[in-house]
């Protein structure tokens, strides 16, 4: 379910939320978190991932009362999900982001501090440089400068949730074009760039990241300091903030 599943209803009902149809690659409105991201007329072009197929089989087994089979499928799904989290293909994801027109730069492995001297100012979409960075440090996390292709509303628990609800209820949240679950159980809401800079503490537990800022991108991982976690896409970005079709690799 993920760390913010209990918050999704408030986002889905009161905020315009968009993603990319996995059938045609065009923008689509998200109305159901658990439904496949595909238009009704594009179902024939939709190809579920292995994990999605296992989950579908698990649900069918539960509904049919085949609980031993369901237990085995659940274990298989959990093992596959764990493997994806513990062995992220960071270099491939960085190249995928660059193909969308998003500049990327490397962060220290297991951390969100920049690995290069100039940090987000070193960000690029050049595939050769990106390959070189991740060839040198395969475990490097991925940084994305904000204020270029998108801005990000950064919600940190626990105080950020109540502040986010206030923003939603007051109509202060712009259309959201992608959602990321953060390693600490928070949320990054991707929105169209405003042209402005960073704004810290716009609400308790909520920051706005624009020009001059950056965020950690999936499938980066956090480790050390007695805790660990990962960044993952809850809702993939929509074509409104990508210059090219969204790839499954990220």
TrEMBL record:
Transmembrane segments: none
Domain named DNA primase/polymerase bifunctional N-terminal: residues: 94-242
InterPro entries listed in its UniProt record: DNA_primase/pol_bifunc_N
Protein's UniProt name: Bifunctional DNA primase/polymerase, N-terminal
Native source species: Nocardia farcinica
Source species taxonomy: Bacteria, Bacillati, Actinomycetota, Actinomycetes, Mycobacteriales
């Amino acid at each position: 379910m993920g760390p913010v599943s209990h918050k999704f209803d408030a986002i889905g009902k009161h905020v315009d939320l968009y993603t990319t149809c996995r059938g045609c690659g065009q923008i689509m409105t998200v109305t159901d978190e658990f439904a496949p991201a595909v238009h009704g007329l594009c179902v024939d072009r939709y190809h579920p991932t292995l994990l999605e197929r296992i989950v579908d089989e698990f649900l069918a087994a539960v509904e049919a009362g085949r609980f031993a089979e369901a237990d085995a499928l659940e274990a298989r799904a959990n093992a596959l999900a764990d493997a994806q989290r513990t062995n992220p293909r960071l270099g491939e994801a960085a190249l995928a982001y660059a193909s969308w027109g998003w500049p990327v730069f490397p962060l220290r492995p297991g951390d969100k501090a920049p690995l290069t001297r100039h940090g987000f100012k070193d960000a690029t979409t050049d595939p050769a440089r990106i390959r070189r960075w991740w060839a040198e440090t395969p475990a490097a996390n991925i940084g994305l400068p904000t204020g270029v292709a998108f801005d990000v509303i950064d919600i940190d628990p626990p105080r950020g949730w109540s502040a986010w609800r206030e923003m939603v209820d007051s109509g202060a949240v712009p259309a959201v074009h992608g959602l990321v679950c953060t390693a600490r159980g928070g949320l990054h809401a991707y929105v169209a760039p405003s042209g402005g800079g960073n704004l810290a503490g716009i609400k308790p537990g909520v920051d706005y990241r624009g020009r001059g800022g950056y965020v950690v991108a999936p499938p980066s991982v956090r480790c050390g300091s007695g805790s660990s976690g990962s960044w993952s896409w809850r809702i993939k970005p929509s074509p409104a903030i990508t210059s090219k079709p969204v790839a499954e690799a990220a």
